[in-house]
Amino acid sequence: MIIENVLPQFDDRLSGIAHSLAASLNPTLVNKASVRGEEIKRKLDPLLKVKRELNMFMF
Question: Coil, helix or strand for 14?
């Protein structure tokens, strides 16, 4: 009963919320956040590599 009735209703409601959220987002802000995230990742990747290398020597 739950699978047949509740889950499809939940899925429909969740889809409606997702569409509403997508329509309300500012694409420029999303793009800027994505670009900034990539910049941060590029800066952190070398630090994480050094950390992994140090961990190898410690254990």
Answer: helix
In whole angstroms, give the CA distance from residue 56 to residue 48. 12
Q: What is the dihedral of CA 30, 33, 39, 44, to 10 degrees?
A: -120
**CA distance linking residue 56 with residue 31, whole number of Å:** 37
Residue at 9: amino acid letter: Q
Whole-structure pTM value: 0.48
The 10s digit of each residue's pLDDT in 30-48 is: 889 999 999 999 999 999 9
What local confidence, expressed as pLDDT, does residue 7 receive? 82
